[in-house]
Amino acid sequence: MTGPTPDPLAAASVRRATPDDAAAACAVLRRSIAECCLEDHRNDQQILSAWLANKTPENLRAWFSSAGYAVVSVRDGGIVGVAMLSPAGMVTLNYLVPEARFQGLGGAMLRALEEEAARRGHGEITLCSTVTAHRFYLGKGYADTGRVSSMFGLTSPVMAKMLVKAPVPAADADGPSTTQGRPAL
């Protein structure tokens, strides 16, 4: 007799990325592109090299320290996914190691980015998808809005999703507290 199937999300967490995560997140990113995005780069070493050229621990450390918002998915103490939102509300990264795909972890990271985009007041979130991830994003409510050629030699679907903005905390029934017409500090 077998027991219940373990829930992969129960053993994983999504948290804000820190600069200290850069080396491990970079390894995830590079491995995901090389192994999961075959439909995109087609094992063309010139495309793959161009795509991976800026995926360095130093760059990830800088990206994680920027005004964007980056998260990592952690399972069994190791980073298995990385995702990032630009200050403009664009998903710039959403990658998992091959063995972590199809377990809800990419969706959990994407939800974290969507929640942050809404919190920052963005009414829409955008991204340039890989061919590999296109169906994933369609299933998460994203719609095609065009196509763009990348510097890596790829043509990618541009996608967008309308967001429900984060609720603004309600004021007291009498309105915000003020002192002589100024907000109370």
Q: Looking across the biggest beta sheet, what order are the strands in?
A: 1-2-3-4-5-7-6
Q: What is the distance, rounded to the nearest whole angstrom, between the alpha carbons of the first and last residues?
A: 63 Å
The string of secondary-structure elements, in order, is EHHHHEEEHEHEEEE
User: Structural class per helix/strand content?
Assistant: alpha+beta
Instruction: Give the C-level CATH assignment of the domain at 12-122.
Output: Alpha Beta
Number of strands: 9
Largest sheet: 7 strands, mixed
**What is the CATH superfamily classification of the domain at 12-122?**
Gcn5-related N-acetyltransferase (GNAT)
**CATH fold title of the domain at 12-122:** Aminopeptidase
How many helices in DSSP terms? 6
Architecture (CATH level 2) name of the domain at 12-122: 3-Layer(aba) Sandwich
Mean pLDDT: 87
Radius of gyration from the alpha-carbon trace, in angstroms:
19 Å
